[in-house]
Amino acid sequence: MRHLFHFGVFYVITPSSNALYTDLSGYYDLMCADINYQSQSDCVRRLHQLFGNQGKRHLDLACGTGPHIRYFIDTGFSSDGLDLNQPMLDQAKLRCPEAQFSLQNMCEFVVDAPYDLITCFLYSIHYSGNLENLSACIRSAHAALKPGGVFCFNAVEKNLINNNSFVRHIVQHEGSEFAFKSGWFYSGEGDKQALKLSIEKTTDKMTEEWHDDHPMVAVSFNELKDLLEPYFEVTVFEHDYEKLEMWNTTSGNAIFVCVKR
């Protein structure tokens, strides 16, 4: 049996020609239940106030079910989102009926009117898959911003990934227990890393499991800055949404604040 994962949708593939399709986009919010969306949104709004053009048009790339967008709208922004997963966009529209949502690839997206702030949370910039697509994503974000606009995202440094480190949390939902586990893996060379994911769903002592090694782009922070700097003024912060500190050059996670040149 093979398991594939694409932007919140798990496909459980049997060896036969009959594929058992399971859309787990409905469990996406459970998978991210330990994330403080409000803290992340508040931090990026503060960064936009410090570095940006003070405009209120916001676009969230790889927006999922829209929790970050909800907080931006509630604090006065006009926010929109895009993602490759239509079921999650359907949920995002229910959560944020004021927003416009677009089924697009963040590596080659276009907008009708430019934005003041573009965000990409939850390390989703790595969904670009390879350095060529990552470069295209950066160019698309640059083209979609107003003068002085900000592109803000978080990233992981490939050379500082601990392949043995995982995060795990358990959530009760509709009579079942869900155990979610995720961690990064990097072989030590090239521009490919994996996001290792697993879900266990236990109902009445019966457990179903989904596993995936999802391919992501691997990039060092120096490589990332080289890709960004032709288009943006780049400032790198520690990955701490509660307080703003400059990146100390040794931690493997960081927040990138990129102001359009």
TrEMBL record:
Pfam families: Methyltransf_25. One of its GO terms (biological process) is methylation. Keywords: Methyltransferase, Transferase. InterPro entries: Methyltransf_25, SAM-dependent_MTases_sf. Residues 59-149 form the Methyltransferase domain. GO terms for molecular function: methyltransferase activity. The lineage of its organism: Bacteria, Pseudomonadati, Pseudomonadota, Gammaproteobacteria, Vibrionales. This is Methyltransferase domain-containing protein.
